[in-house]
Amino acid sequence: MTAMTAADAGLLACHTCHLLHKSSRVGRDLTCARCGATLHTRKQDSVTRAWALLIAAGILYVPANILPVMETGSLFGAQSDTIMSGVVYLWVSGSWPLAVIVFVASILVPGSKLIALSVLLISVQQRTTWRMLDRTRLYRMVESVGRWSMVDIYVAAILTALVQFESLATIRAGPAAIAFGAVVVLTMFAAEAFDPRLIWDPVRKDHASDPG
Amino acid sequence: MIALSLLACPECDLLNRETPIAYGGKAYCRRCGAVLYRRTGDSLDRTLAFTLGAAILMIVANLFQIVELDAQGHHTSTTLFGSVRTLYNDGMGSVAALVFATTILMPVLDIGAMLYMLVPLKLGRIPRQLPAMFRLLQAVRPWGMVEVFMLGTLVSLAKLGHLAHVLPGIALWSFAILMVLVAAAAASFDADELWARVEAIRRRGV
User: What residues of B are in contact with residue A23 (Cβ under 8 Å)?
Assistant: First the structure.
């Protein structure tokens, strides 16, 4: 009864089409026999790349929330809204379902992703075997939920394009939109860079022979 | 060179034995529960039908207006590309590129790659760049966000509904159906069926 990993058995799985190959000792990279993708035992420099992208996203998370995301001009003057003040405005003006959607998508989800990916990366670097199944589930959640943070970007895009009534009201996207877009993209790339198999590597018998 | 009845879990690397499953079912890794493979039971024909529908709707959705706004005698409307262009003209080039990529470019590449692979296979031929298109499909698929865009549009409509008279445009319905068709195509796509069809055609040709 095999209870071993592909890496233990000297097999490589293609990350694109999942075909198994025998790994050879040849120095150069193998390509998948079926779809041509480069084969790697584990995603290359997974932890390093994920940290770099995550830290960059973390840094940009600050201006994304502090700078204005939407600038409204009307007869009564100009008004700047950050993501949070936009949520508050929606809540106070009675549209609390909208407020919840924007709060979850634009503040809760990105923040949770930053925390979750940090937890995953630290735990992998510590080589702990703490709650491996739960951490895998955490990774799955991060992967699937990340894209929904894009909601606010689309809202800004539509509102900006529509509300262009010269002297009555205009809406423009603010600088936070750029930072926020970057945060979403960077966290998506960070999640893509992270190799969840690293979570399970500490229980392998022959862990010492792993490539980086 | 290839271990036929074993599969490596993409999330925990455990070797699982490939066992037959019922149509519509999924096989899960016995250690971590990741989905290893599934038998959708849908032929490639069905996936192709969804993809063709999505292709048509993609064109329609980008030609027409998404939303129209009437406020005190003034009337504005926009297509999806129109909002991209507005962002670009406002100096938000990177945001414009992001919106364009996730709502137009990636879905087009997704649908295009599927058509490139599925149409020749239906006609009994193997397209030359099939492996490259398969890799493109896998790379591009996570970045198509039409359903998130739909939610964003709904939120915008709700926000504007208070201020002015809002009219959904033809493109809005088109995007909604596009969203369903893209999801259906992805859900019915069985990669193992694809490779099996490629093998069958190759063997016939030899």
Answer: none
